[in-house]
Every structure is written in C-alpha cells, then in structure tokens.
Amino acid sequence: MYKPLPNFLRIGDSDIEGKGLFTYEALPNGVYLGITHIRDKRFPDNMIRTPLGGFINHSEVPNCEIEKIGDLHTLKT
After folding, report:
1. pLDDT of 12-22, one tens digit each?
2. For residue 75, what are the contacts with CB-CB under 8 A and spacing of at least 6?
3. So what's the pLDDT on residue 30?
4. Of residues 52 and 2, more confidently modeled
5. Is 53 left (phi over 0), alpha (psi -120 to 50) or beta?
6. Separation CA 41–CA 69 (nearest Å)
7. Any residues with CB less than 8 A from the CB of 31 and at least 6 apart, and which?
8. CB burial readout 8-24, b (16+ within 10 A) else e
9. Contact (Cβ atoms closer than 8 angstroms) between residue 13 and residue 21
10. Could you give the CA distance from residue 71 to residue 26 in angstroms, rounded to a whole number?
C-alpha cells in the first residue's frame, strides 16, 4: 500500500503559513525523512515535488535540512 509520508510524520496547521510537516515525537539529528524533490526537465522548474516536499515550511530556525544527492533532494533532521 502506498503511503506518501513515513508513519512518524503528519501534515497539520502551521504557525508559519498554511499547512506544514510535523512529527508525532521528537526525532534525533540525522534521521532520514524521505525524498522531497526529483530533478526532471519535463516539469516546471525542472523539479517534481513529492508529498513530503509539498509541506516543508521555511523557518528562521530550521530543524531539518535538505541534502542534494544527484537528481534527488532529501530531507533529514
């Protein structure tokens, strides 16, 4: 069965803007959360945004980081 987000993540109302990505519990640093974007020239901005990538909000004090690995952008704590 397809599940767009890992079991420990949820989408909820954000204090920053609209909807955002949240955890059910505190996660240690370095936890892989998934793929946020895939580079593909056939799409606008040459990127496909995954469900995970669609709910990332920007923060002055981020608690996650995006890592670029070839044509993939991944998110980790």
Report:
1. 998 878 898 88
2. 32, 33, 34, 35, 36, 52, 53, 56, 64, 65, 66, 67
3. 93
4. 52
5. alpha
6. 17
7. 76, 77
8. ebeeeeeeeeeebbeee
9. no
10. 29
